[in-house]
């Protein structure tokens, strides 16, 4: 009997085990709570940053539309999400990178408002050439493919803007060929929309002056 009482007295009390278990559970709960609060703060910060980015993008779009109010009103250009679109038929003949007279005049009219828009902004203008998905006509040996045609058109527009007074360090050319259509290439209307040049403000890299 004495031995049994000794054994029972040497065992860990039930309440002590329960207390240790509750302490462990409380620790886990605190860790989870800290993680949740931290995640919520991080999510809130990311949301705030996204709101600021959207507001800045909207301000840039509005400033661009104000600067280009006249050509926009005349329907000579479009502005979509900050990108200025010019129909390829306004600038070039089919499968050509030779700027037409009307296109030359239009580009010259854009220089002043674009310079006004850029002002003190740390932005450059990316001049992008796009084509439809029809292959280059066999009789046209000047361009190997649509990539080359879109590149030459972008370069032509870039040079025309510079000749009209746009500082050369504020523009650069890019080519996309038929890789980014904005309409269906299965019909003539869609292909005409895809043959275009876009002028888009883009942030300067940290290494630019």
UniProtKB/TrEMBL annotation:
**InterPro entries, per database record:** Bact_OuterMem_StrucFunc, OmpA-like, OmpA-like_sf
Determine if Mitochondrion is one of this entry's keywords: no
Q: Looking at the keywords, is Transmembrane helix present?
A: yes
Q: Which residues form the OmpA-like domain?
A: 79-205
Keywords in alphabetical order: Membrane, Transmembrane, Transmembrane helix
Entries under PROSITE patterns matching the protein: OMPA_2
Query: Membrane-spanning residues where?
Result: 14-37
Outline the segment boundaries, as ranges, of region: Disordered: 183-209
- What Pfam families does the entry give? OmpA
Recorded protein name is: OmpA-like domain-containing protein
């Amino acid at each position: 009997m004495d031995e049994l009482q000794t054994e029972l007295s040497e065992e860990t009390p039930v309440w002590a085990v329960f207390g240790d278990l509750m302490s462990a559970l409380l620790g886990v709960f605190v860790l989870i709570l800290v993680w949740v609060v931290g995640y919520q703060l991080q999510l809130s910060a990311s949301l705030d940053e996204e709101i600021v980015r959207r507001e800045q993008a909207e301000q840039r779009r509005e400033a661009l539309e104000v600067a280009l109010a006249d050509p926009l009103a005349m329907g000579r250009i479009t502005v979509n999400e900050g990108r200025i679109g010019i129909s390829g038929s306004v600038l070039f003949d089919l499968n050509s990178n030779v700027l037409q007279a009307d296109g030359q005049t239009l580009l010259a009219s854009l220089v002043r408002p674009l310079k006004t828009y850029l002002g003190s902004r740390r932005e450059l203008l990316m001049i992008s050439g796009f084509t439809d998905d029809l292959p280059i006509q066999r009789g046209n040996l000047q361009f190997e493919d649509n990539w080359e045609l879109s590149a030459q058109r972008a370069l032509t527009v870039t040079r025309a803007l510079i000749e009209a007074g746009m500082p050369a360090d504020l523009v650069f050319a890019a080519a996309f060929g038929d890789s980014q259509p904005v309409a269906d290439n299965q019909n003539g209307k869609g292909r005409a929309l895809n043959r275009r040049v876009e002028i888009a403000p883009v942030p300067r890299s940290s290494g630019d002056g």
